[in-house]
Amino acid sequence: MNIFALSSGRGPCGIAIIRLSGPDTLSVCKLISIGNKIKENEVNLCKFVDPDKGVIIDPEALLLWFPKPNSFTGDDLAEFHIHGSNAIISYFLKVLSSQKNCRLAEPGEFTKLAFQNNKIDLVKAESIGDLIHSETELQRQQAVNLVNGHASKYYDELRSKLIKSLSFIEAKIDFAEEDLPEKVLKEAHKSIKVVHKDIKKIINDNKIGEKIRNGFRVSIIGETNVGKSSLLNLLSKRDAAIVSDEAGTTRDVIEIYLNIDGYPVILADTAGIREAKNDVEKKGISLAINKYKEADLNIVVIDNTSSKISKKILSLINQDTIVLLNKSDISEKPNHKFNNDTVFASIKCNKNIDQLTQKIKDKLSKKYSSNNGVLITRERHRVKLNECLKEIDKFLEKDQDKDLELAAEDLRMATRHLGGIIGKVDVEEILGSIFKDFCIGK
Asked: Structurally, how many domains does the chain consist of?
């Protein structure tokens, strides 16, 4: 079966790209194109036609032909670069659908084919989606690193160390009569402990990779009528929240997505903290406190003209907060002092808000750290790494003299969990490693 799809955005646009992949790709290309002989891995200038009606679809277009296995999918692949009007795109897709054994591709099917044909691993397949959907510079950088195989290579290196160690242990079990040097088994155990330590480092990352991918959570919190909703509107550059002089206007949590100088941020406006007047407001305040606890960073907004700050608000100020002293347009100097990061600003006059955004970025950048540059970007990876760690723990706890076979099974499962991240689970590799390192049967 051959699959096709529009790979670029919908028109109207200057150029639209349609992909076709499958065993009959070249024959379809010849059927719908008029021009010179189609050359592989080159840009072919041609005109596309409807073979059934003889109608010209596009009088001047480009065709790129990539024979297998040297294509993105690993199968024969063609790209049609046509003029990007909706009429041309629709007609072209209609013509392709009328060809024998051709159907519209399912979402992600081209990438799925690439994985099945061993052109990419699972991590790279996932990262291609991340790269397409990246909205900030930090997300783009993370996706590019994954596409380039940095994480895959690191996980594969850890897995190779486990497989090598397992091969020594398998040899000890299967060829007990052979006198394997004690030093070899000690080195195997040492290598396994190093892998265990490295995986622990990756897991203890405060979920930074997921936060870059999904967005850092920043909450705006404070008493009623201090300017929380006005701040949300100012940062989002739209009226996302209702602003009123009436206290307690915000009841529910309002969230917006922002790009703060390359950092993806989910900014939340919350209900004002005070003694609740009714059950609805009480629920809103409860939601506000929960958002405060879940946030990576909190902006505590304080009315600088007030003489007293509630103890509840003061208790919310810690190392993961930025204090925004609002209404500097009314009061010319700060009336309150804090040891934490503080910005003296006016939301109404948009004064010193740039300092606030810079502090948000600085605070988040301190959280952005990694071990060996490897960050977990999906819960699937984290689950697999934790399962791998559990199996290694079980291996290390066993008596290697009495339970060597059971210990080997623990290590075998550990390699499978680690291989599951990138999509590699191959028992034959262990056997191959045994013969390579011990030359058994020579």
From this structure: 3
Q: pLDDT digits over 47-64, tens only?
A: 999 999 999 999 999 999
Which of 95, 116, 137 finishes a domain?
A: 116
Q: Give residues with Cβ within 8 angstroms of 87, minimum separation 6.
A: none
Round to whole Å and give the CA distance between 146 and 152. Answer: 7
If we measure between CA atoms, which residue out of 48, 34, 37 comes closest to residue 81? 48
Q: Which domain holds residue 199?
A: 147-205+374-438
* Total residue length of the chain: 442
pTM over 0.85: no
Q: Give Cα separations from 120 to 29, 37, 133, 153, 425 (angstroms).
A: 26, 31, 19, 12, 15
Cα–Cα distance for residue pair 52/54, rounded to 1 Å: 6
Closest of 19, 142, 150 to residue 79, by C-alpha: 19
Burial of 363 (0-12, 13-18, 19+ CB in 10 A): buried
Q: How do beta strands 342-344 and 43-50 pair?
A: unpaired
Question: 305 with 330: CB under 8 angstroms?
Answer: yes
Tens of pLDDT, residues 193-238: 999 999 999 998 878 888 888 899 999 999 888 888 889 889 988 8
Question: CA of 88: how far to CAs of 9, 16, 143, 179, in Å?
Answer: 13, 9, 33, 73
In terms of C-beta distances under 8 Å and separation of at least 24 residues, what long-range contacts does 127-135 make, across chains too?
127/377, 130/213, 130/377, 135/257, 135/259, 135/264
77-84 and 13-21 as β-strands: parallel, antiparallel, unpaired? antiparallel
CB 250 within 8 A of CB 241: yes
Residue after which a domain boundary falls, among 325, 351, 367 = 367
In this structure, is residue 142 part of a structural domain? Answer: no
CB burial class (10 A; 0-12, 13-18, 19+) of residue 439?
exposed
CB within 8 Å of 73: residues ≥ 6 apart: 21, 110, 113, 114, 117, 119
